[in-house]
Amino acid sequence: MLTAVRGRLTALRQPVRAARIARGLWILWAVVVWNVVFDRVIVVAGRSFVAAAGRAAVERAPRPNMDDYMRPAVARGLWIASAAAGVVLVTGLASVRAASHR
Questions:
Q1: Which residues make Cβ contacts (< 8 Å) with residue 72, sequence separation at least 6?
Q2: How many other β-carbons are positioned within 10 Å of the β-carbon of residue 33?
Q3: Which tens digits make up the pLDDT trace of 2-56?
Q4: Terminal CA-to-CA distance of the chain, rounded, Å?
Q5: Residues 6+ apart with CB under 8 A from 6
Q6: How far is Cα 49 from Cα 80, in angstroms, rounded to an integer?
Q7: With 19 labelled, which of 3, 43, 60, 101 sits at a CA distance of 20 to 30 A?
Q8: Distance CA 17, CA 7 (A)
Q9: How far is CA 11 from CA 6, 21, 26, 98, in A?
């Protein structure tokens, strides 16, 4: 049993396989970054809408339209999240490539 575990760990340390695992982890990290950044932009827009709705209720003004807040946030979130994930992905894949050629 112990030799089987050692064999698997040794196989993971081979340069080709280690580079493949590193690339997969960087891709996963880029996906996580995309989701976190996009979610943050949407949450900030939602909070802005709720604050505006609260102000409108206090001032007895017409209620704001949610689409006026959320549609631009979706577009902005897509761009910002894609840029952040792209930076992580390019940096990670370039690092793996540089490290694997040494």
A1: 45
A2: 17
A3: 777 777 767 666 778 888 999 999 999 999 999 999 999 999 999 999 999 999 9
A4: 34
A5: none
A6: 20
A7: 3
A8: 14
A9: 9, 12, 20, 21
